[in-house]
Write a structure and sequence with these properties.
single chain, mainly alpha, Growth Hormone, Chain: A, 3 domains, Major Facilitator Superfamily protein, membrane, MFS
């Protein structure tokens, strides 16, 4: 195992963050996104319906949403390195099962196991806080946060060649090929850190938390297919509301809750969480709107008649900008604070969406707006993560960042569903070709969402540099 503790400059200190970023892409971001380009082929290969194939994505989303905060809490209790190795092993096993699946139930079981890989992110934030000195933590957290947007771009870039040359199943093996050596490197490089094994796990809180999340997110993801007035959707929403109320009661009464509600009410935490949800919306709104617009037939008068590859290439510069901005945000954090970084990112994302809402007749305009959006979201994602890390005690880092990641996932689901619904509603007839006004409205709503994030950035606590070797003070 790697030497090097907090700020030691040892092997672990130099390599830990690049390795964790790589693991984040392979274990979750790429593994999640790689299924999307292959969904029609999965439907055909497993002899299922479009809705059945879509569950290959939904199963992993639900698993990650439920598991991420719980895994973060386990990392706080038992040490993040130990839990990280277990998470990587489970995620790797799930990916292999999914890649080998010959039936839909086996595929879904594998994807649900693979969703555990979402726990890499809160564990990574805890490890970073343990390994790095305060003045370097923000840069490391920023780079880690930016990985959430990189997997989607990579999946579309590699999907065409892999599917054409090897078949869709090989697309599912790509993250396995990266995660297997990555897990071995994690065992060797990631340093140990102490947990709190005497603490107890709030199992009732965990069960209730999982139950209301699964009910609510299933309703949210299936409503477009089933209909919002469908009894199953309404029943799931009602059950989620009741279970969420029961969970809040349990968490307010147990001595060591899964999620400490007092910590969640802190100004630095709740503002970051709501901003995270809005940023998740803005990320996935573009993930829906840009490819649809590029691939619409040119004879519509506003579409570009592009291929899936051209739509993917449009996303690539934005994703690179997001990654670079995430890393840069950490350095900016030391100088100007996370609140100002969040404000800058929100403004830039708003301008990007506002621009393409009114200027989308040329591809270069989409590139300009998309890159502004990517850089802005890279700054915002890093800022919300750093706000949470700075606002909670070290023993709450894993669960607090896990909740933040979960809320971002909820926002992403809202962005996907709302943007698709806005575009679909603009079609003159149900199921027909959408109108240009639908895209203008979708981009405008995304800009308005980031306007709300600007307000949150102004409310969030500011920071001033603390004495050497200490985290900044929160005002």
């Amino acid at each position: 195992m790697g030497a090097g503790g907090r700020g030691s400059g040892g092997r672990g200190d130099r390599l830990v963050v690049p390795l964790l970023a790589f693991l984040g892409v392979m274990a979750y971001a790429l593994s999640m996104a790689v299924v999307t380009p292959a969904l029609p082929l999965i439907q055909e290969g497993l002899d299922t319906t479009p809705g059945g194939a879509a569950w290959a994505l939904t199963a992993m989303t639900l698993s990650a949403a439920v598991g991420t905060p719980v895994i973060g809490r386990l990392g706080d209790l038992y040490g993040p390195r130990r839990v990280l190795l277990v998470v990587l092993a489970v995620a790797l096993a799930g990916m292999v099962v999914a890649a080998l699946a010959t039936s839909l139930p086996v595929m879904l079981a594998g994807r649900a196991l693979a969703g555990v890989g979402g726990g890499v992110f809160p564990l990574a934030y805890t490890i970073i806080r343990d390994v790095y000195p305060p003045h370097r933590t923000a840069s490391a957290v920023g780079l880690m946060s930016s990985m959430l947007g990189l997997g989607g771009a990579l999946s579309w870039v590699i999907a065409g060649p892999v599917i054409d040359w090897f078949g869709w199943r090989w697309l599912l093996w790509v993250p396995v090929a990266g995660l297997l050596p990555g897990t071995l490197l994690a065992w060797w490089i990631v340093p140990k850190s102490a947990g709190r094994p005497a603490a107890r796990i709030d199992w009732w809180g965990a069960v209730l938390f999982a139950a209301w999340l699964v009910g609510g997110l299933t309703a949210l993801t299936q409503a477009p297919q089933w209909g919002w007035a469908d009894p199953a959707v309404l029943g799931l929403l009602a059950a989620a509301a009741v279970l969420a109320a029961a969970w809040l009661v349990v968490e307010s009464r147990v001595a060591e809750p899964l999620v400490d509600l007092r910590v969640m009410r802190g100004r630095g935490v709740w503002t970051a969480n709501v901003a995270s949800m809005l940023s998740g919306y803005a990320l996935m709104a573009g993930g829906i709107l840009f490819p649809l617009l590029v691939q619409l037939p040119a004879d519509t008068g506003f579409g570009f008649g592009g291929s899936a590859t051209e739509a993917a290439l449009l996303q690539l510069p934005a994703s690179v900008g997001m990654t670079v901005a995430g890393f840069t945000a950490g350095m900016l954090d030391v100088r100007i604070g996370s609140r100002t970084v969040l404000l800058a990112g929100s403004v830039l994302t708003l301008l990007g969406y506002g621009y393409v809402a009114f200027a989308h007749s040329q591809m270069w305009q989409l590139y300009v707006g998309g890159v502004a959006r990517g850089i802005g979201l890279g700054l915002a994602y890093a800022a919300v993560a750093n706000l949470v890390v700075a606002a909670v005690p070290p023993g709450q880092t894993g669960v607090a960042t896990g909740v933040n990641t979960l809320i971002r996932t909820v926002g992403a689901s809202l962005g996907t569903q709302a943007s698709a619904a806005i575009v679909a509603a603009s079609a003159p007839v149900a199921g027909g070709t959408p109108s240009e006004g639908g895209f203008t409205a979708g981009f405008t709503v995304a800009a308005a969402v980031m306007a709300a994030a600007i307000v949150l950035a102004l409310i969030a606590p500011s920071r001033r540099p603390g004495p050497a070797g200490r985290p900044p003070d929160l005002l």
